[in-house]
Each structure stands twice: as C-alpha cells, then as structure tokens.
C-alpha cells in the first residue's frame, strides 16, 4: 500500500509539472501573438493594393476620419490608427494613403493640425474613437476595436507617432521618415521605422539612430530603395505596403503579414529590390515567423 501511495504521489507531481509547463507555454504564446481580429478579410500579400472595403471620409473640426463603408457587416470590429501629419500640412495631403488604410479595414483618426509633434491631438483621436463607439446615433457605434490601436505618421508626424505610443492604449507605432523630436525609450510597443534611401530632409542615418535606440522593444528598420521624402510620404508610395502589413499584423493578427517581418526567411527581410537596407533588432528576431 505504501508503494502504491508513493507511485501515485510521483505521478501527480509529474502531471502537475507538465501542466505548469503547458500553462507557461500558452501564456508566452498569448503575449507574443495578438488575438484574432475576427471577420477582417484576408488580402493575401497584396499590401500595396486597395483592400476589400470601400473607404469613406468625414472631415471634422479637430480630426478627419477615414473608415470603411459597411463597418461590421461580417460581425467584425475595426482597429484604429491615429495619424500625424508632416510639418505644415493637414490630412488631405495624405488622402491616398489614409484611404488605403481604410480600405484594409482600419478606422483612421487623423489630426487636423500641421504641428503634430507632441501628439496631443493624435492622442485625442483615441478619445474621439471611444466616444463614437459608445454613441448609439453614430455609424461607429459598437464597431470600433478599442483594444487594437496603432499610431502612424510621416515626417514630423512620424516623430509624433512614437510620442503618441507613450499612451498605454496604443499597441504599435509606424514612424515614416520621422523627425528627431521623440524619445523611443518612453514606449514599450513594437515600432517600425521607415526611411527613404534618397531622403534629403530626414536622412536615413538619422532614422537608423532612432531604430538603434529602440533596443528594448521589437523594432525594425526598412529603407525604401530610391525613395525621397515627399515622393513616398504624401501618397504612401512604396511606404504604403510595408506600413499596411505592419499594422495588419499587430492590429489584425494577419499571419501573412507576420511572415513579411518575422522568422528566418521573412519576406521583406530578403527583398533587396524593394529595400536598400532592412534591419531587425534582437527582440524582433525572437518573434517566430
């Protein structure tokens, strides 16, 4: 009888250890992989092409909204992207790019200010999204995914995208040819830095310096071959595809997009025709493809 009790206790200890290991592994997976954004259609790997939604635009006093028609038609909720403009321009200058994001299922809340660097109006865009989602008279009512919010911007707005990510409600940032007035040490979200090979306003070496400072978060640096500051930033141009893919992964859990950035043979990492330089820091390399 004593031998039976000993064996039983041993089996129980083994099972308990196995269960603890399984729970720990599941917890690590939950941290590394965002929950599925149900109902958002796949686009394959056509990041630069228009998405499955028809975009709508609503110009307000403080923010301009770019969003999909027929939101929630498949029961889905739509992630939010708060947008920051470059110096001296307003969202209309980026209409092509922001309509593109909306066609992929994002609700873009763009700050109507030509001076975005401190990201005050950008962060106010999250408050607006929360209000619209709670308003029964709004087309956004109950259709905004407030658990999935990204910040993005170009030039001064690229710097503002990093500053906006200080807000704990922001999950990731895309800094397109960003100005220097930001401190990535203040954020704990993954960040994508996009630079232009021939950008004479925000030199690639400056963007690389910001990327190097982001060693405490998963960060990647993508330098677009042949890109200038205005040729890609205003319309999105060649920046459109990688920025869309990054947002689709982190805010929609798009696994096709994940494969572009992570894993040993990630798609963008080896695309020398599109990128003159592509870098991933140690934390980004730890994310499986």
UniProtKB/TrEMBL annotation:
PROSITE patterns given in the database record: TAT (PS51318)
Keyword Glycoprotein: no
Pfam families: PETase
Location of the PET hydrolase/cutinase-like domain: 64-262
Superkingdom: Bacteria
Signal sequence bounds: 1-37
Species in which this protein is naturally found: Rhodococcus tukisamuensis
Protein's name according to its UniProt entry: Chlorophyllase enzyme
UniProt keyword terms in alphabetical order: Signal
């Amino acid at each position: 009888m004593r031998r039976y009790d000993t064996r039983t206790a041993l089996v129980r200890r083994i099972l308990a250890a196995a269960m603890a290991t399984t729970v720990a592994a599941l917890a690590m997976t939950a941290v590394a992989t965002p929950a599925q954004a149900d109902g958002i259609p796949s686009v394959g790997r056509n990041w630069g092409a228009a998405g499955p939604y028809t975009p709508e635009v609503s110009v307000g006093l403080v923010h301009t909204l770019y969003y999909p028609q027929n939101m929630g038609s498949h029961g889905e909720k739509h992630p939010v992207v708060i947008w920051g403009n470059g110096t001296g321009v307003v969202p209309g200058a980026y209409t092509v790019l922001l309509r593109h994001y909306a066609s992929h299922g994002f609700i873009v809340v763009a700050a109507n200010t030509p001076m975005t660097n401190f990201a005050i109006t950008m962060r106010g865009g999250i408050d607006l999204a929360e209000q619209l989602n709670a308003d029964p008279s709004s087309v956004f009512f109950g259709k905004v995914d407030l658990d999935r919010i990204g910040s993005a911007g170009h030039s001064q707005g690229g710097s503002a995208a990093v500053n906006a990510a200080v807000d704990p409600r922001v999950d990731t940032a895309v800094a397109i040819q960003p100005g220097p007035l930001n401190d990535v040490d203040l954020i704990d979200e993954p960040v994508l830095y996009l630079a232009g090979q021939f950008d004479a306003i925000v030199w690639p070496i400056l963007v690389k310096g910001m990327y190097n400072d982001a060693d405490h978060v998963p960060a990647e640096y993508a330098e677009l071959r042949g890109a200038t500051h205005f040729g890609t930033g205003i319309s999105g141009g060649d920046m459109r595809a990688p920025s869309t893919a990054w947002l689709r992964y982190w805010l929609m859990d798009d696994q096709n997009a994940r494969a572009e950035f992570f894993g040993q043979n990630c798609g963008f990492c080896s695309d020398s025709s599109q990128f003159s330089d592509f870098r991933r820091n140690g934390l980004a390399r730890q994310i499986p493809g």
